[in-house]
Design a protein that fits this description.
The chain is mainly α. It has one domain (31-249). Helices cover 75% and strands 2% of the residues. The chain is built from six helices and two strands, in the order αααααββα. It has helices at 31-82, 88-143, 147-179, 181-188, 196-209, 225-249; strands at residues 216-217, 221-222. A two-stranded antiparallel sheet has the order 1-2. The radius of gyration is 26 Å and the shape is elongated. It is found in: Cell membrane.
């Protein structure tokens, strides 16, 4: 629908989410300009939403899948080793597979640094967006008189909280899964019977995996489930503050 379309201001489905554009000319005479502006506005909104919402989610899930593939490869090295005989060919094959795992781990770390460098400002924007979105939905839920508006705002609040929880949960999973690699190397691989070269590669991977990978935002820090509780606490204090202001000003 066009941004210039007439709407009923009493309809609870459009209150607060529909706005109109004022044009300094006759819109019937230059309708193509208005339609072009509508298309460009919607396209820019979709691109902005995809950039700071969908794109970080996609990269986080991709990195998490790479870490899980690395864990599977490490466990597969142990199965190959247990089923192999002590000959030169199998020793070379085991060394090659361990080296592949080490290279995969290095690629995961490089990917993590690239995501961190590219998205640290976007993650900060997303963090602030979650705080403002949840507060914006929660305040009308507490102050609106219309039951339909309360239900609509509460549904938006629940969907925002779920989306926020999934974002921080996936970010927390990167932390947990990356540091669990050291336990898998120590417990799943028969490293005691490995040769010196293999032990060095396993030791390098084990020591590096003890330093967890984590997404960080500018001026906030690491993204984890602890950050989710921080956002909820900020929303709680913000709602209390705005409610007090509304009571003092007589608007509530």
């Amino acid at each position: 629908d066009s941004l210039r379309q007439e709407f009923d201001p009493d309809c609870p489905l459009v209150r607060g989410c529909v706005f109109q554009i004022w044009y300094p000319f006759d819109i019937n005479k230059y309708k193509w300009i208005c339609d072009t502006f509508d298309i460009v506005t919607v396209f820019c909104g979709m691109m902005l939403f995809s950039y700071y919402k969908t794109f970080p989610f996609s990269l986080i899930i991709f990195l998490l899948s790479q870490i899980n593939l690395l864990k599977y490869s490490i466990k597969h090295v142990n199965k190959v080793r247990n089923g192999s005989s002590n000959n030169l060919y199998n020793d070379k094959r085991d060394s090659f597979k361990i080296r592949e795992c080490l290279q995969m781990h290095q690629h995961c770390i490089k990917l993590m640094h690239w995501i961190q460098y590219s998205l640290k400002e976007i993650i900060l924007i997303q963090y602030c967006s979650y705080v403002l979105d949840t507060a914006a939905f929660m305040i009308p839920t507490l102050t609106e008189d219309s039951l339909q508006m309360k239900i609509r705002c509460f549904a938006g609040f629940i969907m925002t909280v779920i989306q926020m929880y999934l974002f921080f949960w996936f970010a927390n999973e990167i932390r947990e899964e990356s540091i669990s690699l050291s336990d898998i190397i120590y417990n799943e691989i028969n490293w005691i019977n490995s040769n010196g070269r293999e032990k060095k590669m396993l030791m390098i991977m084990m020591i590096r995996s003890q330093q967890m990978m984590s997404l960080k935002a500018v001026a906030i820090g690491e993204m984890s489930l602890h950050s989710f509780t921080k956002v909820c606490n900020i929303d709680n204090h913000l709602n209390k503050l705005i409610k007090v202001v509304l009571i003092v000003t007589g608007l509530l």
